[in-house]
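Worked example 2:
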Amino acid sequence: MDQRIHILLISYVFPPYYGIGGRRWARHADELTKLGYTVHVICAKNPFKKVSLWYETIKNNKHIVRYTLNAFYPKVFVDYDHTIFQKVQYRMFAFLLPFFIKGSIYDRTKFWKKPMLNKASEIILRYNIKHVICTGGPFGVMYYSTLLKKRFKNLFLINDFRDPWTWGPNWGYPQLDKKRMAYEKELERNTIKNSDVITAPNSEMIKYLQTNYPEYKDKIIEIPHFYDAAELSAPLKIKSNKVRLMYYGNIYQNIEKLLDITARFLSQHKDKFTFDIYTDKSNHQPYFDKYEATNVRTLPQLTVSELFKKFNEYDYVLILTPEYGKNNISTKFYEILYSKTPIILFSEKGVASQFLENNMLGIHVEENSFDSKMLELYNKGDFKLNSSYNISQYEIKEVAKKISKILESSYPVITD
């Protein structure tokens, strides 16, 4: 007899679907299977030639069962490298979609409602599932998941905001007119109202949600970003007479000025600094080319475990953060700190900079202080990292236990 607890995860982006959006719940799903769960996952078909860096984590886990659905969304809207023909296609869809879509036309789940609900209902009935977790963005699917509670009255639903919804910088929300934004805000409110638990990965998002939806604040819970100690290792540092900087992962939008300042400075101090960037993006490259910063290299994106084998070659991780991310302490922070590598955070003042400075875990630089602080760092030598800071509460197995406790809080579920 199967003694495992069957749950349903609805995550539009999930490995092998390419992109960082699938990481959070791919890792949580894998960890939850170690706690006795079988995780059924409804996800979208991968439209990219590349596959997720976290596909290896889940593809051979027999207790993660994936159900891949067609997205029914224009591929040209998710592929950012366009040919001339694709640019014409993009403009055509940008003109047509507003006639068929309410709210943001960049929400990839807008045509996913019926197939997702049908598949979810089928899985819930077949495996007698009582617990559903849904995550966004894209966000429309989070609202659709609440409709399952009308079909199954004893269902316990967690909706996880990986990113800000109507108040966020992505998915076209800053450009929405009043009518479309009102529609998205109504979806957001109904999602929060009709979910049993709302989760988000940082305190600033929790604060926003609890402030704007005070009547539901008791069910809004932080499920923080995490690191996996099993993935991370950092050999002893190799000495160098230069300050060796590195960056990894996505290159954020809206950091053009930060990139320009960084590129100009590094081009002027090739004898003092090197900078290696591990990413699959290219939007940063023109800035370093402009200043002929030959001490800067762009290298292929690596898995975390592959990357951390190289950490002994670097002195600092430089993080360039846009204004809207100044209060976000991301997964990257905990991974880096576990390796005992200091962080240089290039951003406006916020929660993230306070966290680093108050705990002596790194250096905060702003536009008007970048040059002076970086030169001071070179002249003074190594930053004295507070290596005793304890981040064990953010290890993935501890975060997974917190998710499991939320699920267990709904037991026993009354059945018909």
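The CA atoms of residues 191 and 242 lie 51 Å apart. The radius of gyration is 22 Å.
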